[in-house]
Amino acid sequence: MAFSYQKNFGLPTENVSHELMFSLLRNHNSKWMVAKIREIKSTAHDKDWTQTKDFKDWMRHLSNEQKKALEGKSTEELALAWADGIKKDLPLIIFVANFDETWTNPVQKPGKPKKEPKWGRWRKKDGLRLNGLSVIDLDHVVKSHDPKDVRLWWKQVSAHLDLKEIGIRMVYISASGDGVKVVFEARMEWGNLIDNQFKMAEFLGVPNLAQVLDEKCKDGSRGHFITTEEDLIFIDEDGLYDYYNEEFDKKWTPEYRAGHSQATIDIQAIIGKSSEKKILGTDSTASNEDTAGCAELSYCGVAISKIIDAWLDGKVPGIGSRHDTMRDLAKDIRYCLENTPARIMKAFESQQWIQDLIAEGDPVETTVEGACKQKYYNSKPIRLKEALLKAGVQNTQTPGEAAFNPLYQDLLNWGERIEALFDVFPLLREICHGMRVTAYPCAMFTGAAFLGTNLTRTWYFYFYQPEVERRLNYCLYVIGDPTSGKSFASNLYKYLAAPLIDSDKLGNDAINRYKKALKERTTSTKEQRKEPLKQPEVIVRVHGPRTANGVFIEDMNKAVEVVGDREMHLHLLTFDSELDSSIAAAKGGQWIDKSTMELKAFHNEEDNQQYKNADSWNGPFDVFWNYVYTGTPIALKKKVTESNFGSGLATRLACIPMPESNFQMAPLERHTHVNMERIDRMKSWAYKLDKVSGELPVWPLVEEIWHWTRDRMLLASIDQDRGDEMLLMRVGYYGISVSVPFILMRHWEEWEATKSFTIDEKDIELCLLVLDIQYKTQHYFFGRYAHNYYDNKETEANQNKRRRTKTIIAFESLPETFNEDDVQKAYDVSLSHARVIICRLKKEKIIELNPEGNYKKLVMSL
After folding, report:
1. First-last CA distance in the chain
2. Portions of the chain given CATH number 1.10.10
3. What is d(CA 243, CA 149) in angstroms, rounded to the nearest whole number?
4. Beta carbons within 8 Å of 682's beta carbon, 6+ residues apart
5. Residue 292 needs a FRET pair 20 to 30 A away by CA distance; which of 162, 358, 691, 725 works?
6. pTM for the predicted model, two decimal places
7. How would you list the strands of the sheet with 232-235, edge to edge?
8. Fold for domain 806-857?
């Protein structure tokens, strides 16, 4: 069971997921509409919006009936009607219900083509199925249309409550900016939907319910317009999207299908009590039994009073130091209480010395409010951290610290999912050995890049251009702060790229001997009389960032091997522990044109070189090159900037972030020997994969990737998010290239016997995990660039648009079907000139004459 989203009234509903929810919350059109609604509502009384172009455009699209309903309205009423019209274009979510599949009952109009019934999850009463959620729609809780005032109001209402504990799942500010919508778990003992709404409002202590609670929300199919991510006050996503109370469904769904949605309790009594409330959030009529669990504030499961006692270290301040101590305590303890004055004052109730200050007239509340206005840092104060440890709080990270690294929870989640696969996929445990769980994604991608380079003699087919053979290509950056632990990649390189390193040693030794002999020829007459030296024909595949272009391209063309009955180019490999090295090298001659090859390596595209000097390789060549760099965020910003984002490098890269250490040290462990068993396992698998050749049977993964991409492309289309579309396009390739080395090792015996293997659910699970990591990390590093790219492109396009002339505007103002009089009025010309215009439009096939003698537009704009 889930709740529903309806794109428009002519379409069936669909289930809401995390991805769909946040694509709607981040919709750029919604942000514009919400801002416009609030601007109109806050200024409608003193600004004439009816003279603006946007208002006139809105009026032009109204039906005649709608226009007639607005006749005689004041300019303020018209503006507010416009704001309500804009609101109806916001995404609509039905939080309280899902819908069974039913047939539509189309209305058949005389003289119109017959409409056929359609099957789907239509928003109909006979298909309604309640899920057990309810929504309080509170309007006009503040006088302004400023979301900040609503947030402050909500803080006062909820200061003494644990929202998750009482079943509240989501709170967001309404489109008008003066109300909130509260999504919560309905309680059986409270009654039906409307009963629950009044009971929860009573429990919260909301005053003046007659004025603020919208009773229209009693219907089971009632939808609510969703606003923006910035308006989200609270959300508990754990189980939100599949929440289902079967008992509530069985009891109340038949009643609602029968049209019985009225209250079953005395709501007037609740309304009467609410009108007596003056101070928000302090006069809840909930029973003592209900509120007892909320009386004691806590942080990470530890009572705030215990944390304060630890902060004071058993020393109660005496007269003369009480105010200063209270001020310092407020500045520290706010990090445990969401920087909320009301909660801090609640916590101070347990401190008798503070209560004495209040009784003596000390401005405690004013001091607390001032403390909360001071700068809120990402890290807690040292004294508070020490107090938290004394009180028994293990994790002293603040919400601000998690916000400092928005991917922290994702990294933790991915790491735990990778850890769960340790016993499924060979080498996964060895690759991640000794690293923090949040660094496992880095380890997995890096290990896959080296293992996949060993699989250079393999290929597969993809859904895009399905006739083209694809190779396992890797363009990987591991990004982390200095001392974040990126050196793990150097160790993996030594063990997993051992086949290349060992093979190159013979080639490099031969080249060095040749160079030494060549130098001796220039200084020794005896040496000059010997047979001419011949440069050794060797293959060298590992190249550092300072490799000269000539050597790099020559070695790329030499790295060819016969596989079966065909020649295959083998991948070159570059690994460097400092991304800055390649950036610095780019300033010198040795890196010229490698930036082009960096782009072409992703799809093994063709490059070409034609130089006159005798040592250069001339002619076309395909680029087969995998590279792995570790570097800092600053180095990445030098490499990929907003100005060069359009080159396409960012969408080809896999950039995986290393987590912050959060002041945690590695455990103190003494080792007296190297774990050779782990090293030997990694090298053994590397050499096994180096001997693999042939087509990889990964089509089931490709199908899964196609569906995954299609679903997210649908969300991007709902959002009209071209930036998201761009970043999605190449994610799928990493789904194959990162997962395949581990999948092949898992099915090694089957591959050895049949040169094929069967993809199962665990393989698909790993592939989908890789897709999730690549997709979200691309958005993390390059999402802003992608959106700005299209915003800037649109701005430039707008500058190049042709001027809207009077004739264009006149044509657009014509109705779809019109006559000569309409043209005369629109163009403000004589009847003879109108006929000339009509004649020209007909010749250009812009309009046509219909059987009734009128003209019909074939295009809507010139």
Report:
1. 49
2. 806-857
3. 31
4. 427, 430, 431, 492, 495, 496
5. 358
6. 0.54
7. 133-138, 180-185, 168-173, 232-235
8. Arc Repressor Mutant, subunit A (1.10.10)
